Amino acid sequence: MISFIINKLRYLKLLNANYVEEQRKQRAFQSKKSENSLQKLSQSLKQNLEAIKNQIGNNYDVIIREFCLADQIEVALIYLSGMTDHITINENIIKPLMLYSGLPHYNKPFEITQIKSSILSVGEVKQYRSFDEIIEGCLSGNSILLVNGCDEALSIVTADWKSRGIEEPKTESVVRGPRQGFNESLVANTTLIRRIIKSPDLKVEAMKLGKKTNTNVCIAYLHGVANPLLIEEIKRRINRIKTDSILESGYVEQFIEDAPFSIFSTIANSEKPDSTAAKILEGRAAILVDGTPFALTVPMVFIESFQSSEDYYSRPYFASLIRIIRFLAFFLSIIAPASYVALTTFHQELIPTPLLFSMASAQEGVPFPAVMEASMMGVIFEILREAGVRLPRPVGQAVSIVGALVIGESAVTAGLIGAPMVIVVALTAVASFVVPAQTDSGGIMRIIFVILAGFMGIYGIVIGLLGLFIHLASLRSFGTPYLSPIAPLSISDLKDSVIRVPLWSMLTRPRTIGWQDPERQEFRLKPSPPSEEIKEAE
Amino acid sequence: MKRQRIRSSIREYSRLVIICSILILGTTGCWNRRELPDLAIVVGVGLDKVEDEEVTDKLELTAQIVKTSEMKSGNKGGGNSEAYWNAKNTGNSIFATIRGFTHQASRKLYWPHNQVIIFGRDLAKKGIQEYLDFFVRDQETRLGVWILVADDKASEILEVRPSLEKTPAISLDHLLEAQVATSQTSAIKLNEFVNRLLSKTTAPIAAMVKISSQGSEKSLLVTGTAVFKADKLIGELNITETLGLLWIINEVKSGIIDVECPESNGKVSLEIIRAKSKVTPEIIENKVHFKVEIEEESNIGSQSCSDNLEHLDAIEKLEEAQIAAIESEVRAALSKAKRLNADVFGFGDILHQKLPSEWKEMESMWDEVFPTIEVEVSVDTNVRRSGSSRKAVGQKEE
Asked: Are B290 and B382 within one domain?
């Protein structure tokens, strides 16, 4: 066993050495490549078109339109159909160019900036000199205008494509609160945030990730509220990512998280603009990735999993009750089957006598030990859940009905599984969905705890809980202790932890996150009837 | 160099983790792991003396084991088969007897849910200390189990099939819990019994249980108090004396006191709602005096006469009658205890706490002192409320 581990480690070392070697090679290659790509445009339109055609010309969706500017100068417009707005191209680019009549005399050299400044009626136009920049622009939906006799090209932003509308997010539905969710378009997503935070302090910085996918990634934060070191660290970690593809924000998450070997996620995600905006307002930074409705927010603390945007929209009393119930449900979902196993196999004396009788009579004739039963039921439940999630909805329902019937009813009547175990597993399953952010870590912990309880009873559960708390306390997310504000304790932040106090008394931002600008609101905002003095004054 | 160092530290670390996990697993292991269907849950145990003189074994032990398969709520044949099995075994010592069940019962006897320990009268007379030892010492048994003395044989008590509960032992448990409503027996648990046994002077007490037959129907009746001297049964207190005992030891929680109607024939039943007592020792002219002060509050529960109890005079008369009733109960208990020469009230311990120097002189001769002590009883009662009606049913307007 030990030698196996050591061999594995040796292998990893070797990989690491190889990696260093490769990096060196790559750097050399890159410098060569950048020489290539910095290739400048030439004066001749023919040569330029030839070069572009060589790179992207034989594609079905690339359209190269050659025409004359005011019957005199040859120009070419290159764009991708499907990623561009046809009306803009026709009306605001081609039409004014063709109909332009204010050309200077031949002896005067023609300036491309003239087109930019006085012909094109399009919002955003960039000027480029290298092929790489042009092609990248073209592939992200810009229209490229090449002019004969100019060694510069215009990249006109015409990007527009069909995207899913703004719909209610499937993962975080609320009773009260905005129902719009992010969609797959990055621009739409940043817009949704900006529509909530209309402040010049909201910064949205863009980056490009993935050598092949060239995915746009944005970091959104509040300047002056978010810790500049945090932003710097996020940028550093994101810039470290050298991969060919970024398909979803999960890719970014797994490359930049603090504890890759922990079952707990140290980066939060949300599909809702309002909760993302709320986190930005607390001093966190959001990382938005093109092509996914899931925005990441860092740093994440453990109790964030128990907070829902609705907690702040509804009045504090019920919100606090729900918070407490979420904590209860979370602990129930990881401890309940383990406790059942521990009680029935080790500590029968802890069960109240009448309950013991009914449990014993239900367990009578069941052929498996309790720990086997619990593991089996746990696995079966996960199978059912997975089947229900992946299958198309109509088939999924059939699966769940069959599963519920077979497991809930027949297994008990056939005497394969005791009825109390079914109740415990069902309760656990329901409870595990109360805290969606910790559902996956909860599932893993549940299995670990059942095994510990099967071996060592309540002693095992206590060891497991100790280990769990030690692990949680050792985690950090971008410098913020994962268990804050509970450990390290921060009294003022406890206002928004297990309970949620009224908004007017939440005076400060979370201390570990928004300490740069702690003041959230002013004192004495508690609403009350007008006092006597004010009445008199009126 | 560095790589080697890291590798060796990793090797050390992984070795440490493996050793630790082995140690942690080994500290408990699965040694007391048992599944629910492997348990024979004992709910009651009866101890009797073997009557046959020729047999060398002296103890007959009846363990009432729950048949979990019969306990099922949806069991349709529940009317015929019993939900319990009384396993019997004989032996010389209690531990050997209990171990002897291994040959009879297919499952291991499981003791934590034991509700009652019943001693047969004959066994109780011979002394029960050697049998109690197991129940205190063993880690599976609990100190919160009821101690009972059977009017005759304990095994017979465990045979009486209750009409409401599933097993006699559970039924007894519920009966004793309910005794607070009448305060007619001194329901006592093992830990308290042992405490009394450990005291040099206080006599242990236990509830008595007997079988009452009405025709062919048999049922269990918990009534009266068994009085022990050291660990031997020496006598009983009847209902009145038991109530007197409970008054003195401040154990009355509730109960009914019947008194005569102030003006006409009939009875008024008063329900005790609050009771408190205090015992203070005094030494006057070399004689030990005890002052028992009882405070009591009651409500009118019912009246069988048509008196108007609405005015203060009537209430005062009721209170006086109540004082007399309580006093007579206390006197009855005192005289019985003196006759048995058993300090069931714990007077010796009170004296020890309050007047330690005098106690030292008396300690060795408490058995001679106890029958001669003088007890002064003062009772203070209050009749508080008359329930939902102020007048007797059918009483005419005046």
From this structure: yes
- Is B175 among the domain residues? yes
Q: What is the DSSP string of A500-516?
A: B--GGG--B--TTTSTT
The whole-angstrom separation of Cα A456 and Cα A469 is 19
Q: What is the pLDDT of residues A32-76, one digit of tens each?
A: 555 555 578 888 888 888 888 888 878 888 888 888 877 778 889
Kindly state whether residues B218 and B313 are assigned to the same domain: no
| Antiparallel, parallel or unpaired: β B84-91 and B59-66 | antiparallel
Do B215 and B285 sit in the same domain of this protein? Answer: no
Q: What percent of chain A has pLDDT over 70?
A: 95
Q: Which two tokens stand for residue B341?
A: 């020469």
* ipTM for this prediction: 0.83
Q: Which is nearest to B365 in space by CA: B197, B199, B201, B195?
A: B201
Residues B180 and B308 in one domain: no
- Range(s) of the domain holding residue B306: 239-398
Whether residues B135 and B269 share a domain: the answer is no
* Residue B79: pLDDT band with limits 50, 70, 90: low
The 8-class DSSP code of residue A248 comes to S
Of B32, B70, B113, the CB nearest to A356: B113
Q: Note whether A423 and A417 are within 8 A (CB).
A: no
Confidence at residue B77, expressed as pLDDT on a 0 to 100 scale: 46
pLDDT tens across B158-216, in order?
A: 999 888 888 999 999 999 988 877 888 888 999 999 999 999 889 999 999 999 988 88
Indicate yes or no: CB of B35 within 8 angstroms of CB of A349.
Answer: no
Token pair recorded at residue A157:
């932003």
Domain count, chain B: 2
Closest of B255, B257, B279 to residue B181, by C-alpha? B255
Q: Which tens digit of pLDDT belongs to each residue from A107-131? A: 566 677 878 888 888 888 888 888 8
- The verdict on B71 touching A (C-beta cutoff 8 Å) is yes
pLDDT of residue B105: 86
Q: Say whether both B396 and B247 belong to one domain.
A: yes
| A306 within 8 A of A271, measured Cβ to Cβ | no
User: For residues A59 and A69, is the Cβ–Cβ distance under 8 A?
Assistant: no
Tally A–B CB contacts below 8 A. 88
pLDDT, residue B331, reads 94
Q: Is B30 on the interface with A (CB under 8 A)?
A: yes
Residues B36, A353: C-beta atoms closer than 8 Å = no
Question: Is the CB of residue B120 less than 8 Å from the CB of residue B45?
Answer: no
